[in-house]
Amino acid sequence: MRNFVAEFFEAIVPSVKAEEPEEEGPIDEEGPVADEETLADAEPEDEVDEEAEEADDDDEEEEDEEPEDIMPKIQQKCANSSICHEYKHHFDECVERVTKAQEEPGYEDLEYKEDCVEEFFHLSHCVNDCTAPTLFRALK
């Protein structure tokens, strides 16, 4: 059995020798040491920092101008529409029934406690079906 496991392991796990990285020069605690040519070609740090700060300022201005999310409004209209009226009615009745049952003494000791998960999913499915076409037309 041990032989089978060893053969199986060898067949699945590739046996590749790890390549050692090439050394480009002396490595300091701060990282690789740059040679003089590289340092001569580099721009001064002050100019690079100013350009990066200007680009960051532009990005921040664009992020502040986010459009209003219209989905919650569309979902509310759909939930109150005649299309989803039946599902909302069943969900509201269930919530009322469960709330009333929770207020009765001895509720904690009951073996079965009703929840409204099924009614919620039916309502949610109806609202999503109603919301999708309107939402995607508005997003185009």
From TrEMBL:
Keywords: Electron transport, Membrane, Mitochondrion, Mitochondrion inner membrane, Respiratory chain, Transport. Its main location: mitochondrion. GO terms for biological process: mitochondrial electron transport, ubiquinol to cytochrome c. It is found in: Mitochondrion inner membrane. SUPFAM superfamilies: Non-heme 11 kDa protein of cytochrome bc1 complex (Ubiquinol-cytochrome c reductase). It comes from the Eukaryota. Pfam families: UCR_hinge. One of its GO terms (cellular component) is mitochondrial inner membrane. Residues 69-140 form the Ubiquinol-cytochrome C reductase hinge domain. The keyword Ion transport does not apply. It is a peripheral membrane protein. Residues 20-69 have a biased composition (Acidic residues). Residues 15-73 are annotated as: Disordered. Belongs to the UQCRH/QCR6 family. This is Cytochrome b-c1 complex subunit 6, mitochondrial. The lineage of its organism: Eukaryota, Fungi, Dikarya, Ascomycota, Saccharomycotina.
